Amino acid sequence: MIESGNNAALSTRLLARNNKITLTSGLAPKYLQANLIILPSRFASDFLLLCHRNPVPCPLLASSRTPGSATALKSHLPGISDAAIASALDICTDVPLYMVYDDGKLVKSHCSDIAKEWTDDHVAFLIGCSYSFEAALTAAGLPPRHTAMGRNVPMYATNIPLCAAGVFTGGTYVVSMRPYRRADVEKVRELTRPYVSTHGEPVAWGWDAVEKLGIKDINAPEFGDMPLDLDPADDEIVPVFWGCGVTPQLA
Amino acid sequence: MIESGNNAALSTRLLARNNKITLTSGLAPKYLQANLIILPSRFASDFLLLCHRNPVPCPLLASSRTPGSATALKSHLPGISDAAIASALDICTDVPLYMVYDDGKLVKSHCSDIAKEWTDDHVAFLIGCSYSFEAALTAAGLPPRHTAMGRNVPMYATNIPLCAAGVFTGGTYVVSMRPYRRADVEKVRELTRPYVSTHGEPVAWGWDAVEKLGIKDINAPEFGDMPLDLDPADDEIVPVFWGCGVTPQLA
Protein backbone atom coordinates (compact mmCIF):
# COMPACT_ATOMS: atom_id res chain seq x y z
CA MET A 1 0.00 0.00 0.00
CA ILE A 2 1.27 3.48 -0.83
CA GLU A 3 1.81 5.65 2.24
CA SER A 4 -0.15 8.86 2.62
CA GLY A 5 -1.13 10.82 5.74
CA ASN A 6 -1.25 8.95 9.03
CA ASN A 7 -0.96 5.20 8.57
CA ALA A 8 0.05 1.99 10.30
CA ALA A 9 3.56 2.09 8.80
CA LEU A 10 4.19 5.60 10.14
CA SER A 11 2.73 4.69 13.56
CA THR A 12 5.04 1.67 13.70
CA ARG A 13 8.05 3.84 12.85
CA LEU A 14 7.06 6.32 15.57
CA LEU A 15 6.89 3.47 18.10
CA ALA A 16 10.41 2.47 17.02
CA ARG A 17 11.63 6.07 17.13
CA ASN A 18 10.39 6.34 20.73
CA ASN A 19 11.93 2.95 21.60
CA LYS A 20 8.57 1.32 22.38
CA ILE A 21 9.11 -1.77 20.20
CA THR A 22 11.95 -4.14 19.29
CA LEU A 23 10.24 -6.21 16.58
CA THR A 24 8.04 -5.11 13.66
CA SER A 25 6.59 -8.40 12.39
CA GLY A 26 2.84 -8.05 11.75
CA LEU A 27 2.51 -4.44 12.94
CA ALA A 28 1.67 -2.88 9.55
CA PRO A 29 0.52 -5.85 7.47
CA LYS A 30 -0.71 -3.94 4.40
CA TYR A 31 2.60 -2.09 3.95
CA LEU A 32 5.92 -3.25 2.54
CA GLN A 33 8.43 -4.06 5.21
CA ALA A 34 12.06 -3.37 4.36
CA ASN A 35 15.55 -4.37 5.42
CA LEU A 36 17.83 -1.37 5.98
CA ILE A 37 21.47 -1.27 4.88
CA ILE A 38 23.69 1.80 5.34
CA LEU A 39 27.02 2.16 3.55
CA PRO A 40 29.73 4.79 3.04
CA SER A 41 29.06 6.65 -0.22
CA ARG A 42 32.11 5.19 -1.97
CA PHE A 43 30.32 1.81 -2.10
CA ALA A 44 26.92 3.20 -3.10
CA SER A 45 27.12 2.83 -6.89
CA ASP A 46 28.52 -0.70 -6.68
CA PHE A 47 25.79 -1.66 -4.21
CA LEU A 48 23.10 -0.23 -6.51
CA LEU A 49 24.54 -2.32 -9.34
CA LEU A 50 24.63 -5.41 -7.08
CA CYS A 51 20.90 -4.96 -6.43
CA HIS A 52 20.09 -4.40 -10.11
CA ARG A 53 22.02 -7.50 -11.15
CA ASN A 54 20.55 -9.67 -8.36
CA PRO A 55 16.98 -8.43 -7.95
CA VAL A 56 15.53 -11.60 -6.41
CA PRO A 57 17.69 -11.74 -3.26
CA CYS A 58 18.32 -7.94 -3.31
CA PRO A 59 15.07 -6.18 -4.35
CA LEU A 60 15.91 -2.49 -3.97
CA LEU A 61 12.94 -0.38 -2.85
CA ALA A 62 14.58 2.97 -2.13
CA SER A 63 17.85 4.69 -1.29
CA SER A 64 19.04 8.02 0.17
CA ARG A 65 18.35 10.76 -2.38
CA THR A 66 21.88 12.10 -1.78
CA PRO A 67 24.73 10.93 0.50
CA GLY A 68 23.98 12.04 4.05
CA SER A 69 20.23 12.11 3.52
CA ALA A 70 18.53 10.14 6.32
CA THR A 71 15.08 11.57 5.67
CA ALA A 72 14.68 12.00 1.89
CA LEU A 73 14.59 8.81 -0.16
CA LYS A 74 14.58 8.10 -3.88
CA SER A 75 12.11 5.38 -4.96
CA HIS A 76 13.40 2.51 -7.09
CA LEU A 77 9.90 1.07 -7.54
CA PRO A 78 8.35 1.77 -10.95
CA GLY A 79 5.27 3.96 -10.60
CA ILE A 80 5.91 4.79 -6.93
CA SER A 81 6.90 8.39 -6.18
CA ASP A 82 9.68 9.31 -3.77
CA ALA A 83 7.11 10.86 -1.42
CA ALA A 84 5.00 7.68 -1.33
CA ILE A 85 7.86 5.50 -0.05
CA ALA A 86 7.69 6.52 3.60
CA SER A 87 6.30 9.66 5.20
CA ALA A 88 8.15 11.62 7.92
CA LEU A 89 10.91 9.01 7.92
CA ASP A 90 14.14 9.27 9.90
CA ILE A 91 16.49 6.42 8.96
CA CYS A 92 18.54 7.02 12.11
CA THR A 93 15.76 6.38 14.62
CA ASP A 94 12.84 4.61 12.93
CA VAL A 95 14.19 1.07 12.99
CA PRO A 96 13.70 -0.70 16.35
CA LEU A 97 17.27 -2.01 16.63
CA TYR A 98 20.45 -1.38 14.64
CA MET A 99 23.73 -3.23 14.26
CA VAL A 100 26.87 -1.19 13.59
CA TYR A 101 29.76 -2.62 11.58
CA ASP A 102 33.24 -1.16 11.23
CA ASP A 103 35.26 -2.53 8.31
CA GLY A 104 33.03 -5.63 8.14
CA LYS A 105 33.14 -6.33 11.90
CA LEU A 106 30.10 -6.00 14.16
CA VAL A 107 31.08 -3.34 16.71
CA LYS A 108 27.68 -2.55 18.27
CA SER A 109 24.37 -4.41 18.30
CA HIS A 110 20.90 -3.67 19.69
CA CYS A 111 21.38 0.11 19.28
CA SER A 112 18.07 1.93 19.55
CA ASP A 113 19.28 4.69 17.22
CA ILE A 114 22.31 5.60 15.09
CA ALA A 115 22.12 9.39 15.24
CA LYS A 116 25.75 9.51 16.43
CA GLU A 117 27.05 7.09 13.78
CA TRP A 118 25.24 8.67 10.78
CA THR A 119 27.42 11.08 8.76
CA ASP A 120 27.11 13.17 5.62
CA ASP A 121 28.91 10.39 3.80
CA HIS A 122 26.34 7.67 4.51
CA VAL A 123 23.83 6.26 2.03
CA ALA A 124 20.82 4.21 3.18
CA PHE A 125 19.24 1.42 1.12
CA LEU A 126 15.87 -0.23 1.72
CA ILE A 127 15.59 -3.83 0.51
CA GLY A 128 12.27 -5.68 0.25
CA CYS A 129 11.55 -8.21 2.99
CA SER A 130 9.66 -11.48 2.69
CA TYR A 131 7.55 -10.68 5.74
CA SER A 132 5.47 -8.74 3.18
CA PHE A 133 4.18 -11.77 1.28
CA GLU A 134 3.62 -13.90 4.37
CA ALA A 135 0.39 -12.03 5.08
CA ALA A 136 -0.85 -13.05 1.61
CA LEU A 137 -0.02 -16.69 2.28
CA THR A 138 -1.78 -16.58 5.63
CA ALA A 139 -4.84 -14.89 4.13
CA ALA A 140 -5.04 -17.72 1.57
CA GLY A 141 -5.07 -20.36 4.29
CA LEU A 142 -1.40 -21.24 3.79
CA PRO A 143 0.31 -19.62 6.81
CA PRO A 144 4.10 -20.17 6.94
CA ARG A 145 4.81 -22.80 9.57
CA HIS A 146 7.27 -20.63 11.54
CA THR A 147 4.67 -17.86 12.02
CA ALA A 148 2.12 -20.38 13.30
CA MET A 149 4.79 -21.58 15.74
CA GLY A 150 5.90 -18.09 16.78
CA ARG A 151 9.44 -18.73 15.52
CA ASN A 152 11.76 -16.88 13.13
CA VAL A 153 12.01 -18.14 9.54
CA PRO A 154 15.00 -20.45 8.92
CA MET A 155 17.58 -18.94 6.52
CA TYR A 156 20.40 -20.79 4.78
CA ALA A 157 23.65 -19.87 3.07
CA THR A 158 23.76 -21.41 -0.43
CA ASN A 159 26.50 -21.90 -2.99
CA ILE A 160 24.64 -19.88 -5.67
CA PRO A 161 26.99 -17.00 -6.52
CA LEU A 162 25.62 -13.49 -6.80
CA CYS A 163 26.42 -11.81 -10.11
CA ALA A 164 29.50 -9.74 -9.25
CA ALA A 165 29.18 -5.93 -9.14
CA GLY A 166 32.20 -3.70 -8.55
CA VAL A 167 33.69 -4.32 -5.08
CA PHE A 168 30.97 -6.90 -4.35
CA THR A 169 32.54 -10.00 -5.88
CA GLY A 170 32.27 -12.83 -3.40
CA GLY A 171 28.72 -13.21 -2.14
CA THR A 172 26.27 -16.07 -2.49
CA TYR A 173 22.48 -16.20 -2.17
CA VAL A 174 20.92 -16.55 1.25
CA VAL A 175 17.47 -18.16 1.07
CA SER A 176 14.58 -18.31 3.52
CA MET A 177 12.63 -21.57 3.83
CA ARG A 178 8.97 -22.33 4.49
CA PRO A 179 7.80 -25.96 4.35
CA TYR A 180 4.61 -26.73 2.40
CA ARG A 181 2.69 -29.74 1.21
CA ARG A 182 3.94 -30.72 -2.23
CA ALA A 183 0.36 -30.39 -3.48
CA ASP A 184 0.29 -26.74 -2.36
CA VAL A 185 3.57 -25.62 -3.97
CA GLU A 186 1.99 -24.34 -7.20
CA LYS A 187 -0.55 -22.33 -5.20
CA VAL A 188 2.22 -20.93 -2.98
CA ARG A 189 4.24 -19.97 -6.10
CA GLU A 190 1.20 -18.20 -7.59
CA LEU A 191 0.41 -16.32 -4.38
CA THR A 192 3.93 -14.95 -3.93
CA ARG A 193 4.70 -14.36 -7.66
CA PRO A 194 3.23 -10.83 -7.72
CA TYR A 195 5.45 -9.69 -4.81
CA VAL A 196 8.29 -8.83 -7.21
CA SER A 197 9.68 -6.09 -4.96
CA THR A 198 9.88 -8.43 -1.97
CA HIS A 199 11.62 -11.52 -3.45
CA GLY A 200 8.57 -12.73 -5.43
CA GLU A 201 8.00 -16.43 -6.05
CA PRO A 202 10.30 -19.14 -4.67
CA VAL A 203 13.67 -19.69 -6.35
CA ALA A 204 13.51 -23.46 -5.82
CA TRP A 205 11.53 -26.13 -3.93
CA GLY A 206 11.47 -29.82 -3.09
CA TRP A 207 14.11 -32.02 -1.49
CA ASP A 208 16.21 -31.90 -4.71
CA ALA A 209 16.59 -28.18 -4.19
CA VAL A 210 18.56 -28.69 -0.97
CA GLU A 211 21.43 -30.19 -2.95
CA LYS A 212 20.95 -27.85 -5.93
CA LEU A 213 21.35 -24.83 -3.64
CA GLY A 214 24.30 -26.40 -1.79
CA ILE A 215 22.54 -26.29 1.59
CA LYS A 216 24.59 -28.34 4.04
CA ASP A 217 21.96 -29.34 6.60
CA ILE A 218 18.29 -28.42 6.42
CA ASN A 219 18.08 -28.76 10.21
CA ALA A 220 20.95 -26.33 10.81
CA PRO A 221 20.05 -22.97 9.21
CA GLU A 222 22.82 -20.35 9.31
CA PHE A 223 20.28 -17.67 10.39
CA GLY A 224 16.89 -17.63 12.08
CA ASP A 225 15.40 -20.55 14.00
CA MET A 226 15.78 -24.27 13.32
CA PRO A 227 12.82 -25.72 11.43
CA LEU A 228 10.83 -28.26 13.47
CA ASP A 229 9.44 -31.59 12.26
CA LEU A 230 10.98 -31.40 8.77
CA ASP A 231 11.95 -34.86 7.53
CA PRO A 232 13.93 -35.44 4.29
CA ALA A 233 12.30 -38.88 4.07
CA ASP A 234 8.87 -37.23 3.93
CA ASP A 235 7.89 -36.66 0.34
CA GLU A 236 4.59 -35.02 1.29
CA ILE A 237 5.98 -31.93 3.05
CA VAL A 238 8.82 -30.26 1.11
CA PRO A 239 11.01 -27.21 1.74
CA VAL A 240 10.27 -24.13 -0.40
CA PHE A 241 13.05 -21.55 -0.76
CA TRP A 242 12.82 -17.82 -1.43
CA GLY A 243 15.52 -15.22 -2.04
CA CYS A 244 16.32 -13.50 1.27
CA GLY A 245 17.25 -9.93 2.20
CA VAL A 246 20.08 -11.17 4.41
CA THR A 247 21.97 -11.77 1.11
CA PRO A 248 23.10 -8.15 0.57
CA GLN A 249 24.07 -7.78 4.22
CA LEU A 250 26.56 -10.61 3.77
CA ALA A 251 27.75 -9.46 0.32
CA MET B 1 23.25 4.35 -29.97
CA ILE B 2 19.59 5.26 -30.39
CA GLU B 3 18.24 4.57 -33.86
CA SER B 4 16.88 7.44 -35.93
CA GLY B 5 16.56 7.81 -39.70
CA ASN B 6 18.86 5.73 -41.89
CA ASN B 7 21.57 4.01 -39.91
CA ALA B 8 23.94 1.04 -39.90
CA ALA B 9 21.54 -1.09 -37.82
CA LEU B 10 18.71 -0.56 -40.31
CA SER B 11 21.01 -1.21 -43.28
CA THR B 12 22.13 -4.45 -41.67
CA ARG B 13 18.51 -5.51 -41.13
CA LEU B 14 17.71 -4.72 -44.76
CA LEU B 15 20.63 -6.91 -45.89
CA ALA B 16 19.21 -9.71 -43.74
CA ARG B 17 15.68 -9.10 -45.04
CA ASN B 18 16.96 -9.48 -48.59
CA ASN B 19 18.97 -12.57 -47.65
CA LYS B 20 22.34 -10.96 -48.42
CA ILE B 21 24.01 -11.89 -45.11
CA THR B 22 24.06 -14.85 -42.73
CA LEU B 23 26.08 -13.32 -39.85
CA THR B 24 25.82 -9.89 -38.24
CA SER B 25 28.95 -9.70 -36.08
CA GLY B 26 30.68 -6.31 -36.49
CA LEU B 27 28.24 -4.89 -39.10
CA ALA B 28 26.73 -2.14 -36.91
CA PRO B 29 29.27 -1.71 -34.12
CA LYS B 30 27.76 1.37 -32.47
CA TYR B 31 24.33 -0.24 -32.08
CA LEU B 32 23.07 -2.82 -29.63
CA GLN B 33 22.87 -6.28 -31.09
CA ALA B 34 20.10 -8.51 -29.81
CA ASN B 35 19.15 -12.15 -29.57
CA LEU B 36 15.61 -12.86 -30.78
CA ILE B 37 13.24 -15.25 -29.03
CA ILE B 38 9.66 -15.82 -30.19
CA LEU B 39 7.09 -17.57 -28.00
CA PRO B 40 3.37 -18.33 -28.01
CA SER B 41 1.53 -15.64 -26.04
CA ARG B 42 0.58 -18.01 -23.21
CA PHE B 43 4.26 -18.08 -22.14
CA ALA B 44 4.85 -14.33 -22.55
CA SER B 45 4.18 -13.11 -19.01
CA ASP B 46 6.25 -15.90 -17.45
CA PHE B 47 9.10 -15.17 -19.87
CA LEU B 48 8.99 -11.44 -19.00
CA LEU B 49 9.20 -12.40 -15.33
CA LEU B 50 12.11 -14.78 -16.06
CA CYS B 51 14.00 -11.87 -17.65
CA HIS B 52 13.20 -9.49 -14.79
CA ARG B 53 14.34 -12.01 -12.19
CA ASN B 54 17.51 -12.95 -14.11
CA PRO B 55 18.62 -9.71 -15.77
CA VAL B 56 22.30 -10.62 -16.17
CA PRO B 57 21.89 -13.67 -18.44
CA CYS B 58 18.50 -12.44 -19.77
CA PRO B 59 18.70 -8.64 -20.29
CA LEU B 60 15.38 -7.78 -21.93
CA LEU B 61 15.63 -4.92 -24.45
CA ALA B 62 12.20 -5.00 -26.07
CA SER B 63 9.16 -7.18 -26.78
CA SER B 64 6.17 -7.23 -29.14
CA ARG B 65 3.83 -4.42 -28.16
CA THR B 66 0.90 -6.86 -28.45
CA PRO B 67 0.72 -10.57 -29.36
CA GLY B 68 1.06 -10.93 -33.13
CA SER B 69 3.00 -7.69 -33.52
CA ALA B 70 6.15 -8.36 -35.59
CA THR B 71 6.82 -4.70 -36.35
CA ALA B 72 5.85 -2.66 -33.25
CA LEU B 73 7.98 -3.20 -30.16
CA LYS B 74 7.72 -2.01 -26.58
CA SER B 75 11.03 -0.83 -25.08
CA HIS B 76 12.13 -2.29 -21.74
CA LEU B 77 15.15 0.03 -21.54
CA PRO B 78 14.72 2.96 -19.13
CA GLY B 79 14.79 6.26 -21.01
CA ILE B 80 14.58 4.64 -24.48
CA SER B 81 11.31 5.17 -26.35
CA ASP B 82 9.55 2.40 -28.25
CA ALA B 83 10.29 4.18 -31.54
CA ALA B 84 14.03 4.40 -30.82
CA ILE B 85 14.43 0.63 -30.43
CA ALA B 86 14.52 -0.25 -34.13
CA SER B 87 13.18 1.63 -37.12
CA ALA B 88 11.18 -0.09 -39.91
CA LEU B 89 11.70 -3.46 -38.25
CA ASP B 90 10.11 -6.71 -39.37
CA ILE B 91 10.84 -9.48 -36.87
CA CYS B 92 9.89 -12.13 -39.46
CA THR B 93 12.53 -11.22 -42.03
CA ASP B 94 15.22 -9.01 -40.46
CA VAL B 95 17.28 -11.71 -38.78
CA PRO B 96 19.70 -13.49 -41.12
CA LEU B 97 18.79 -17.03 -40.06
CA TYR B 98 16.05 -18.46 -37.85
CA MET B 99 15.60 -21.74 -36.02
CA VAL B 100 12.05 -23.06 -35.56
CA TYR B 101 11.11 -25.18 -32.54
CA ASP B 102 7.91 -27.14 -32.05
CA ASP B 103 7.21 -28.17 -28.44
CA GLY B 104 10.91 -27.72 -27.56
CA LYS B 105 12.22 -29.67 -30.56
CA LEU B 106 14.18 -28.02 -33.39
CA VAL B 107 12.08 -28.63 -36.50
CA LYS B 108 13.70 -26.21 -38.98
CA SER B 109 17.07 -24.45 -38.99
CA HIS B 110 18.74 -21.91 -41.31
CA CYS B 111 15.39 -20.42 -42.35
CA SER B 112 15.87 -17.06 -44.06
CA ASP B 113 12.46 -15.85 -42.86
CA ILE B 114 9.57 -16.98 -40.66
CA ALA B 115 6.69 -15.17 -42.38
CA LYS B 116 4.81 -18.50 -42.68
CA GLU B 117 5.41 -19.53 -39.06
CA TRP B 118 4.51 -16.17 -37.45
CA THR B 119 0.93 -15.99 -36.14
CA ASP B 120 -1.27 -13.53 -34.28
CA ASP B 121 -0.49 -15.47 -31.14
CA HIS B 122 3.31 -14.94 -31.24
CA VAL B 123 5.29 -12.57 -29.02
CA ALA B 124 8.87 -11.57 -29.89
CA PHE B 125 11.52 -10.75 -27.27
CA LEU B 126 14.86 -9.04 -27.90
CA ILE B 127 17.61 -9.96 -25.43
CA GLY B 128 20.91 -8.05 -25.20
CA CYS B 129 23.93 -9.72 -26.78
CA SER B 130 27.53 -9.59 -25.60
CA TYR B 131 28.74 -8.78 -29.12
CA SER B 132 27.83 -5.23 -28.09
CA PHE B 133 30.55 -4.79 -25.46
CA GLU B 134 33.24 -6.55 -27.47
CA ALA B 135 33.73 -3.42 -29.57
CA ALA B 136 34.47 -1.48 -26.35
CA LEU B 137 37.04 -4.07 -25.29
CA THR B 138 38.69 -3.97 -28.71
CA ALA B 139 38.74 -0.16 -28.74
CA ALA B 140 40.55 -0.23 -25.37
CA GLY B 141 43.26 -2.53 -26.74
CA LEU B 142 41.78 -5.63 -25.11
CA PRO B 143 40.19 -7.49 -28.04
CA PRO B 144 38.52 -10.80 -27.10
CA ARG B 145 40.77 -13.62 -28.23
CA HIS B 146 38.10 -15.39 -30.30
CA THR B 147 37.47 -12.27 -32.41
CA ALA B 148 41.20 -11.89 -33.10
CA MET B 149 41.18 -15.55 -34.20
CA GLY B 150 38.01 -15.28 -36.27
CA ARG B 151 36.24 -17.85 -34.10
CA ASN B 152 32.94 -17.91 -32.24
CA VAL B 153 33.00 -17.22 -28.49
CA PRO B 154 33.01 -20.40 -26.33
CA MET B 155 29.84 -20.80 -24.24
CA TYR B 156 29.33 -23.17 -21.31
CA ALA B 157 26.40 -24.64 -19.45
CA THR B 158 26.78 -24.01 -15.70
CA ASN B 159 25.05 -25.37 -12.61
CA ILE B 160 23.92 -21.90 -11.47
CA PRO B 161 20.13 -22.11 -11.34
CA LEU B 162 18.03 -19.33 -12.82
CA CYS B 163 15.50 -17.86 -10.38
CA ALA B 164 12.32 -19.74 -11.32
CA ALA B 165 9.49 -17.81 -13.02
CA GLY B 166 6.14 -19.44 -13.78
CA VAL B 167 6.57 -22.31 -16.29
CA PHE B 168 10.32 -21.60 -16.49
CA THR B 169 11.54 -23.63 -13.53
CA GLY B 170 14.49 -25.71 -14.64
CA GLY B 171 17.08 -23.55 -16.38
CA THR B 172 20.67 -22.77 -15.46
CA TYR B 173 22.98 -19.93 -16.54
CA VAL B 174 24.88 -20.24 -19.79
CA VAL B 175 28.08 -18.14 -19.74
CA SER B 176 30.37 -16.91 -22.49
CA MET B 177 34.13 -16.96 -21.87
CA ARG B 178 36.95 -14.65 -22.96
CA PRO B 179 40.47 -15.31 -21.65
CA TYR B 180 42.44 -12.32 -20.31
CA ARG B 181 45.67 -11.67 -18.47
CA ARG B 182 44.97 -11.71 -14.74
CA ALA B 183 46.44 -8.21 -14.55
CA ASP B 184 43.83 -6.96 -17.04
CA VAL B 185 40.75 -8.42 -15.34
CA GLU B 186 39.91 -5.27 -13.34
CA LYS B 187 40.18 -3.15 -16.49
CA VAL B 188 37.99 -5.63 -18.41
CA ARG B 189 35.41 -5.52 -15.59
CA GLU B 190 35.37 -1.71 -15.65
CA LEU B 191 35.03 -1.54 -19.43
CA THR B 192 32.06 -3.91 -19.59
CA ARG B 193 30.34 -2.75 -16.36
CA PRO B 194 28.34 0.05 -18.06
CA TYR B 195 26.81 -2.37 -20.61
CA VAL B 196 24.01 -3.28 -18.20
CA SER B 197 21.53 -4.06 -20.99
CA THR B 198 23.95 -6.49 -22.66
CA HIS B 199 25.08 -8.67 -19.70
CA GLY B 200 27.34 -5.98 -18.15
CA GLU B 201 30.47 -6.94 -16.22
CA PRO B 202 31.63 -10.56 -15.84
CA VAL B 203 29.79 -12.81 -13.38
CA ALA B 204 33.00 -14.60 -12.36
CA TRP B 205 36.66 -14.99 -13.39
CA GLY B 206 39.82 -16.96 -12.67
CA TRP B 207 40.43 -20.70 -12.62
CA ASP B 208 38.45 -21.00 -9.34
CA ALA B 209 35.38 -19.84 -11.22
CA VAL B 210 35.40 -22.94 -13.43
CA GLU B 211 34.51 -25.09 -10.44
CA LYS B 212 32.28 -22.46 -8.84
CA LEU B 213 30.15 -22.34 -12.00
CA GLY B 214 30.15 -26.13 -12.35
CA ILE B 215 31.80 -26.06 -15.80
CA LYS B 216 32.80 -29.62 -16.69
CA ASP B 217 35.64 -29.01 -19.13
CA ILE B 218 36.96 -25.59 -20.15
CA ASN B 219 38.16 -27.11 -23.44
CA ALA B 220 34.75 -28.53 -24.32
CA PRO B 221 32.24 -25.67 -24.43
CA GLU B 222 28.62 -26.72 -24.96
CA PHE B 223 28.15 -23.94 -27.57
CA GLY B 224 30.40 -21.90 -29.86
CA ASP B 225 33.99 -22.81 -30.69
CA MET B 226 36.57 -24.52 -28.52
CA PRO B 227 38.99 -22.06 -26.91
CA LEU B 228 42.57 -22.44 -28.15
CA ASP B 229 45.74 -22.35 -26.03
CA LEU B 230 43.97 -22.09 -22.67
CA ASP B 231 45.90 -23.92 -19.95
CA PRO B 232 44.53 -24.44 -16.40
CA ALA B 233 48.15 -24.60 -15.18
CA ASP B 234 48.72 -21.07 -16.50
CA ASP B 235 48.03 -18.59 -13.75
CA GLU B 236 48.80 -15.60 -15.99
CA ILE B 237 45.94 -16.02 -18.49
CA VAL B 238 42.60 -16.73 -16.82
CA PRO B 239 39.07 -17.36 -18.11
CA VAL B 240 36.57 -14.52 -17.62
CA PHE B 241 32.86 -15.43 -17.71
CA TRP B 242 29.88 -13.28 -18.70
CA GLY B 243 26.15 -14.02 -18.60
CA CYS B 244 25.06 -15.21 -22.04
CA GLY B 245 21.90 -14.72 -24.10
CA VAL B 246 21.78 -18.41 -24.93
CA THR B 247 20.47 -18.86 -21.34
CA PRO B 248 16.83 -17.89 -22.07
CA GLN B 249 16.79 -19.98 -25.26
CA LEU B 250 17.53 -23.05 -23.16
CA ALA B 251 15.19 -22.10 -20.31
From TrEMBL, chains A, B:
Alphabetized InterPro entries for the sequence: D-Glu_cyclase, Putative_hydro-lyase
Gene3D superfamilies given in the database record: PSTPO5379-like (3.40.1640.10), PSTPO5379-like domain (3.30.2040.10)
Molecular-function GO terms, alphabetical: D-glutamate cyclase activity
One protein family per Pfam: D-Glu_cyclase
GO biological process: glutamate metabolic process
Keyword terms, alphabetized: Lyase
Coiled-coil boundaries: none
Protein family according to the UniProt entry: Belongs to the D-glutamate cyclase family.
Name listed for the protein in its UniProt record: DUF1445 domain-containing protein
